[in-house]
Amino acid sequence: NWIVGGSGEFAVAPATTIDADASYFSTHESRTSPDLSVQALSPTAYTQFHSDASILNQPGPIGLSACVNYDRFVYDPTVLVGGSLLDNADRNSNVVEGFAKALYEFQPEESVYARLSYNVRDFDQQFDRNGFDHSSDGYRLDTGLQMLFTPLLKGTMFLGYLQQNFKAPFHSVSGVDFGSQIDWFVTELVK
User: Fold this and answer.
1) Are 74 and 92 in contact (CB under 8 A)?
2) What's the N-to-C CA distance of the chain in angstroms?
3) Which of 30, 75, 132, 145 is the most interior residue, by most CB within 10 Å?
4) Are 54 and 66 in contact (CB under 8 A)?
5) What are phi and psi of 124, to 5 degrees?
6) Does the pLDDT of residue 191 top 70, yes or no?
7) In angstroms, what CA-CA distances link 185 with 19, 158, 189?
8) Cα 45 to the center of its chain, rounded Å
9) CA-based diameter of the chain, in Å?
10) pLDDT tens, 54-72?
11) Nearest Cα to 3, choosing from 66, 64, 46?
């Protein structure tokens, strides 16, 4: 498994920056993946290409940002017990997600925010090997809190609502959306 990527940040105006990232990841599915055949001799290899671009404008305590992410997943055939191959071309897909975010920084490195995102998940083949269409689209609306606990420890937590729309016979899902994340930085130079 390996990954290669790069990123850049550009100041385009006072208090306005544009960030861009791209990476290519070659890896394998976990042996516990529900998508891995019970007859698989080894985990399925796949690649993921990721790119994103965002813009942030924060001239004071109020900030506005927008971002677009693109992910491309390509799966190799799975080697089965006995030497035959299981074609995974029906799993190759593109995922596009865009979001807009507004934040209010009430203290340095401490802010509350609201974020609205929309995603589209599109598969290369309309129907999989079992005749199902897995393509979907959906949105999330979250509010959250970001804090810098120490110069090397940053936390984020959020609560909101999500809706993901699937095609029949799959049912669309909706409900409470929540999560948290702690980021630890080895040194203040990499924040």
Assistant:
1) yes
2) 26
3) 75
4) yes
5) -60, -40
6) no
7) 20, 21, 8
8) 19
9) 64
10) 999 999 999 999 999 999 9
11) 46
Place of tokens 């340095």: 108
Dist CA 44 CA 77 (whole Å):
7
Q: Can you tell me the distance from the alpha carbon of 39 to that of 186, in angstroms, rounded to the nearest whole number?
A: 42
Which pLDDT band holds residue 76 (cuts at 50, 70, 90)? Answer: very high
**103 CA to centre of own chain:** 20
Interior CA angle at 65 toward 111 and 19, to 5°?
A: 110
HSE-CB at 54 with a 13 A cutoff on CA atoms is 19
- Say how far apart CA 112 and CA 145 lie, in whole Å: 4
Q: How confident is the model at residue 190 (pLDDT cuts 50, 70, 90)?
A: low
User: What does the DSSP assignment read for 173-191?
Assistant: EEEEEEEEEEEE-SSGGG-
pLDDT higher than 80, residue 154: yes
**Helix (H) and strand (E) counts in the chain:** 0, 11
Average pLDDT, stretch 162-175? 95
Per-residue b or e along 25-45, where b marks 16 or more CB atoms closer than 10 Å to that residue's CB = beeebeeeeeebeeebeebbb
